[in-house]
Design brief:
CATH superfamily of the largest domain in chain B: P-loop containing nucleotide triphosphate hydrolases
Helix content of chain B: 25-40%
Mean pLDDT of chain B: 85
Distance between the termini of chain B: 52 Å
Strand order of the largest sheet of chain B: 6-7-8-3-9-10
Largest interface: A-C, 47 and 49 residues
Chains: A mainly alpha (317), B alpha/beta (499), C mainly alpha (355)
CATH architecture of the largest domain in chain B: 3-Layer(aba) Sandwich
Shape of chain A: globular
Number of strands of chain B: 22
Helix content of chain A: 55-70%
Distance between the termini of chain A: 72 Å
Low-confidence stretches of chain A: none
Low-confidence stretches of chain B: none
Number of strands of chain A: 0
Oligomer: heterotrimer
CATH topology of chain A: ABC transporter involved in vitamin B12 uptake, BtuC
Radius of gyration of chain B: 24 Å
Strand content of chain A: under 5%
CATH class of chain A: Mainly Alpha
Order of helices and strands of chain A: HHHHHHHHHHHH
Largest sheet of chain A: none
CATH class of the largest domain in chain B: Alpha Beta
Number of helices of chain A: 12
Structural class of chain A: mainly alpha
Strand content of chain B: 25-35%
Number of domains of chain A: 1
Shape of chain B: globular
Mean pLDDT of chain A: 87
Structural class of chain B: alpha/beta
């Protein structure tokens, strides 16, 4: 099959779009959480670990209760709980955020493997079913692709819109952004930097946990060691790719989700290109985008939150 | 008889190793502009910080409208109607004016258009312009100060405290500020005006309190009737270090020459505009002008830290325009930057590391550094320039402003430079520190060094310089002889009026 | 009415570095014990096994030392970059790419005599690691692009590069269907110096010692300190920030690459994606525990290696190997808390009652 001869109604194409949306949802949830955390000034490199914890806890909670929704919620809580450690260490104590975040990844992955030891080959499942919208699912092409997703995708979109609204149209969001840009100014204006940052980190953890639970209750549908497969790192890259804005991060999620989906689906398109090389694209793309952004913004303030990564302590003279 | 708007009664505030306020007192009548006068280090800012909730006084009472208050945070003070505009602005650079004004006092859901309108109306009410949609990083210092004032007014501050507000304003902007303050007190609000400049106080304020050594030496002095000389003596006390008297200079060869220099700033606007200047050995040339008129770009370019778009810089007759900073130092340049702790010194490192910043290459044994010789060099520097240090290995940040500057100057001057560029050399120092630094600079001049001094303190320039040059918007707009010029002439030049 | 704040101590607690590690270790062992109890595993037996199998005999001790080599070199790489305030999170990728470069030399010089081949491969490894760090270094030096992200991304790229080679040009013809890269030449094996410990241990010790000594005593090291403490001051003093950033990143990459080369010629027989084995990330932990000082890196690396080696051995007891990873992370958390508390202390701030 020549590329030009492929029509978009081919099952391969439809499958590609559906998978892209699935992976995009996965990445978007985690990246949204990290965006919130970083806009408040806290770098959390523990996304992979929080995702793993969310995945294993989500799976266990799901099969124990029989409901994937329970799995999703409990997985989120688990992610938030793990993020709490980073909140205490990096925000409460002011320890180095990079080190604490990496330790969190190792801890999260380790704990997840530890807890999930017995569940590795478990045949039990608690899966989401695709949402069947009365009218929309019948639309010819869109119904099979865009509107053929699990409820989590719609939840993710809603959270994305909600995040945008809160960040840009509420006093809470204004305060959070101020904490991330200039913590001392926010402090002087009456916002509690500690409270805002800790909350942001835990919300970020909850979303990363949700992303992990989505993995084990839908995308993969089960738990196994290494199920996160480095996608937490892609989410971290995604935040920067999207310049810390929920809307752009969504677009980036679609793009990166597409490359993830493409890796396993090159054959039907007759593309000789190695899927492994394709799998490098999200990472290379991020580097290129970063360089381009930095080059074009040389004479302007950088889009990254000015206080990102720095601990804040209110010093008395 | 109505209560005073503000009453501070016997305020004590101590920090490790220093007593900042020793029983200071203050009474402000409503509807007045009240000055808090004193030299640098007298405790003015600390006292006001106690009023504004930044510090909690160790002893003493704070009364607002007759009611005793206890502020454990700036928010408490704000809630009681006390707003403070600090010397260092607390603004978020990437936020707009409106966002900065409402931060911390915004409605739950923010309707950007409505907020913008309200902020613009507020500014209008007090007689000044402010575009609520502009991002703060684009604003000048004067405009940023207006944002700070708007912040207090947005929260309906009944008492506005301004800490050295005119330090960043041109004379014209200062007059505008005065008008704004008048409108505020006309509404019954009160303004507290911290300053160390007598002449400002007499033009803006109704009453004054003088602080010295952390205590009040005079309270509620009526400006209209007081004698300025009395106030000055109260501020400075009996034993004051006399400023150095400049001798008649006999300038020699041109040591520093700047020709048609044009430099762009980080926002791609012209900072230095086709400027030409020369400094001869044995003279002090003083550049007067309010901060933000290109002085920093000029000095950074002379030192090689910034790149010129066109024009040349020559040291000792040699064109150094393309030379890196180190080469210029080798050719005899010494640069005292305005940002002591950010540029001139590395505060996290110990004194020895900072002392050898210029000379470490000479202290080498092959590729290795001889730390013994380095420490000896540091000790010698400290002794020669009378820097008071606790322990050698303590980080620099623990030293006082005066000692930091002594070390910085000492390090630069110890290389026997032919041209010294000093930017705001005595800013923020106490009386003794100011005298010490000024003496060092004059001594250099007398020994034949060429000195280019940039200062916002007009009195300092008038006292020390042999030639005064005024910079405004990147250009030299006037050159004056300090022996004959008047302050108003210089002031007009600073505003850009043709001379 | 009072609240707790973290306030700066008058005097920083002395002996911060070993104290931090010790506190971290105790913290981790205690919490690890709790975890074991919860999952019904025998605590004493587990810890005893971990100790015996990592430090308990000459044989296992030598294995622990071998494993400490890449940990120590990665830790050194990270700590040198950290001296300038740069984060080299890409040690994983630099190890992998260094090993890849060494493998390339191994293929080219398959007939060369052992010592020459080894030296060539190690040099190639250093160059490879340096090259992998060059991009991020340039981006940071010229454009201020965060090296945290660029190095992180290149980790994943290096990993996939090896997978690509594994399935493609470098595939082992005798692989029996499993995609493996061809083994490196047999003669490119670092000789044993004590029990199982190979020459790499000596190389690592030499490199670390050289750096620790050089950085503290040279003008270059002084410039590094200034640049790391205050970039503007460094520029003012005529130190080229660009040059320093680039130089440090490349050097850091070279050291990490060397670790990859030593692994290839020491412990491993062939290049694979496991050759970095988490050493890059663990190196960050090692550096953090050594408080970013090259002098402490060696000891911390050995201790950490013991935890890792011990962790591998408890699987036969039926305990999940993840326990080791958990303990490693807990050591780190405990240590960073200890570091904070050596500089700050908890104080109660009273609100004054009106007099």
């Amino acid at each position: 099959m020549m590329l030009a001869e492929i029509s978009i109604t081919e099952p391969a194409v439809i499958g590609l779009v559906v998978a892209s949306i699935q992976f995009a949802t996965l990445l978007y949830l985690a990246a949204l959480g990290e965006t919130i955390s970083e806009r408040a000034g806290v770098l959390n490199l523990g996304v992979e670990g929080m995702m793993a914890i969310g995945a294993v806890v989500g799976y266990i909670a799901g099969i124990s209760s029989g409901s994937p929704w329970v799995g999703l919620i409990v997985g989120s809580l688990a992610g938030a709980a793990l993020a709490g450690i980073h909140a205490v260490a990096a925000v409460g104590l002011g320890a180095d955020q990079v080190v604490s975040g990496l330790a969190l990844t190792i801890l999260g992955l380790g704990l997840a493997d530890f807890v999930g030891d017995e569940y590795t080959a478990d045949p039990r499942r608690a899966l989401f079913e695709n949402v069947d919208f009365p009218v929309l699912t019948d639309i010819r092409w869109l119904g099979d692709t865009v509107f053929n997703a699990s409820p989590v995708t719609y939840v993710a979109v809603a959270i994305g819109i909600g995040t945008w609204f809160v960040l840009n149209r509420t006093s809470v969001g204004l305060g959070l952004r101020a904490v991330g840009e200039s913590a001392s100014t926010a402090d002087a204006a009456g916002h509690s930097v500690t409270l805002v940052r800790m909350s942001a980190v835990m919300v970020g953890g909850a979303l990363a946990g949700m992303s992990g639970a989505y993995l084990s209750t839908y995308v993969v549908g089960a738990w196994s060691v290494g199920v996160t497969a480095g996608r937490g790192w892609i989410a971290v890259a995604l935040v920067i790719f999207g310049a810390w804005r929920p809307g752009r991060v969504a677009l980036g999620a679609l793009l990166f989700g597409f490359t993830l989906a493409l890796q396993l689906r090159l054959q039907p398109f007759g593309i000789e290109f190695s899927p492994i090389l394709v799998s490098m694209t999200p990472y290379l793309l991020t580097i290129i985008v970063l360089i381009v952004i930095s080059y074009r913004a040389r004479n302007q303030p950088s889009p990254s939150p000015a206080g990102l990564g720095k601990a804040y302590r209110r010093e008395e003279r | 008889m109505s209560h005073p708007a503000v009453e501070l009664d016997g305020i004590w505030k101590r920090f490790p190793g220093v007593i900042a306020n020793a029983g200071a007192s203050l009474t402000v009548r409503p509807g007045t502009v009240h000055a808090v006068l004193g030299e640098n280090g007298a405790g003015k800012t600390t006292l006001m910080n106690c009023l504004a909730g930044v510090y909690l006084p160790d002893e003493g009472a704070v009364r607002i409208d007759g009611e005793e208050m206890r502020f454990s945070s700036p928010s408490d003070a704000l809630a009681a109607g006390i707003g403070m505009v600090h010397q260092e602005f607390r603004l978020v650079p990437t936020f707009t004016v409106a966002e900065n004004v409402v931060l911390g006092a915004a409605p739950r859901v923010i309707d950007a258009a409505a907020i913008n309108r309200q902020v613009a109306e507020l500014a209008d009410r007090f007689g000044f312009e402010a575009d609520p949609t502009r991002p703060v990083w684009q604003l000048s210092m004067g405009e940023r100060q207006r944002v700070e004032i708007l912040k207090a007014l947005w929260r309906d501050a009944k008492v506005l405290i301004l800490d050295e507000p005119t330090a960043v304003l041109t004379p014209q902007e200062a007059v505008e500020l005065g008008k704004v303050l008048r409108r505020m007190v006309a509404e019954g609000r009160s303004v507290i005006f911290i300053s160390h400049k007598l002449d400002e106080v007499t033009s803006f304020c109704d009453e004054a309190t003088v602080l010295r050594g952390g205590a009040s030496v005079a309270t509620s002095v009526d400006i209209a009737t007081v004698d300025a000389g009395e106030l000055a003596k109260l501020m400075v006390g009996e034993s004051s270090a006399t400023p150095p008297s400049p001798r008649l200079a006999t300038p020699g060869d041109v040591m520093l020459s700047v020709d048609s220099l044009t430099v762009m700033d980080s926002r791609n606007l012209v900072a230095v505009d086709n400027l030409s200047l020369s400094v001869r050995s044995g003279e002090i040339v003083g550049i007067a002008g309010v901060a933000g008129n290109g002085q920093r770009s000029l000095t950074d370019t002379i030192a090689g830290l910034d790149v010129a778009t066109s024009g040349t810089v020559s040291i000792g007759g040699v064109d150094v325009t393309a030379d890196p900073p180190r080469r210029r130092v080798e050719r005899g340049l010494a640069y005292i930057p305005e940002d002591r702790l950010g540029v001139g010194l590395a505060p996290k490192l110990p004194i020895t590391h900072n002392a050898i910043l210029r000379s470490y290459r000479d202290l080498r044994n092959g590729p290795l550094l001889s730390w013994d010789r380095a420490k000896a060099f540091g000790r010698e520097l400290v002794e020669r320039f009378e820097v008071k240090v606790g322990r050698e290995d303590l980080p620099m940040a623990s030293l006082s402003g005066g000692n930091l500057q002594r070390l910085l100057l000492g390090r630069e001057l110890s290389r026997d430079p032919s041209i010294v560029v000093a930017s705001q050399p005595t800013r923020g120092l106490d009386v003794a520190g100011v005298a010490a630094i000024q003496n060092l600079l004059v001594a250099q001049r007398d020994a034949g060094t060429a000195v280019l001094m940039i200062s916002e303190d007009l009195d300092e320039i008038l006292a020390l310089a042999d030639r005064i040059v005024v910079m405004s918007e990147g250009r030299i707009v006037g050159e004056f002889d300090p022996r004959v010029v008047s302050r108003s002439e210089i002031g007009e030049a600073m505003m850009g009026a043709p001379t | 009415m009072s609240r707790l704040v973290l306030a700066r101590r008058e005097q920083v607690v002395r002996g911060g570095q070993p104290l931090a590690f010790f506190v971290g270790l105790v913290f981790a062992l205690v919490l690890g014990a709790v975890l074991l109890v919860i999952s019904g595993d025998p605590v004493i037996d587990t810890y005893q096994r971990m100790f015996e199998r990592s430090l308990g005999s000459a044989d296992v001790l030598s294995t622990t030392l071998n494993r400490a080599v890449p940990l120590a070199l990665a830790g050194l790489a990270v700590s040198i970059a950290a001296r300038m305030g740069l984060w080299n999170i890409g040690a994983e990728g630099q190890i992998l790419f260094g090993a890849t470069a060494a493998t390339l030399i191994g293929r080219i010089g398959a007939d060369w005599p052992g010592p020459i081949l080894i030296i060539a491969m190690l040099i190639a490894a250093m160059l490879g690691g340096a090259l992998w760090a060059l991009g991020p270094g340039l981006a940071r030096a010229e454009l201020g692009v965060s090296e945290i992200i660029t190095t992180l991304m290149l980790n994943e790229v290096a990993l996939r590069l090896i997978r690509y080679l594994q399935n493609g040009r470098w595939k082992d013809p005798e692989g029996f269907g499993f995609p493996n890269i061809e083994a490196r030449p047999d003669q490119a094996q670092l000789g044993a110096i004590w029990e199982r410990a190979h020459l790499g241990v000596i190389i690592a010790i030499a490199v670390i010692a050289a750096f620790a000594w050089f950085v503290n005593r040279s003008a270059w090291g002084y410039e590094l300190d200034i640049a790391g403490a205050s970039p503007k001051t460094a520029t003012y003093a005529g130190i080229s920030m660009r040059g320093k950033v680039l130089g440090v990143m490349v050097l850091s990459g070279a050291i990490a690459g060397l670790a990859g080369g030593i692994e290839l010629t020491g412990t491993a027989a062939r290049l694979s994606e496991n050759i970095s084995n988490g050493f890059g990330f663990a190196g960050i932990i090692v550096a953090a525990l050594a408080l970013m000082r090259p002098s402490g890196v060696a000891l911390v690396a050995v201790a950490f290696s013991a935890v890792q080696v011990g962790g591998l051995s408890i699987q036969t007891l039926g305990v999940s190997p993840a326990v080791s990873a958990i303990i490693q992370a807990l050591i780190l958390f405990g240590a960073i808390a200890a570091v904070v508390f050596s500089t700050y202390e908890l104080r109660r701030v009273e609100r004054k009652v009106a007099s």
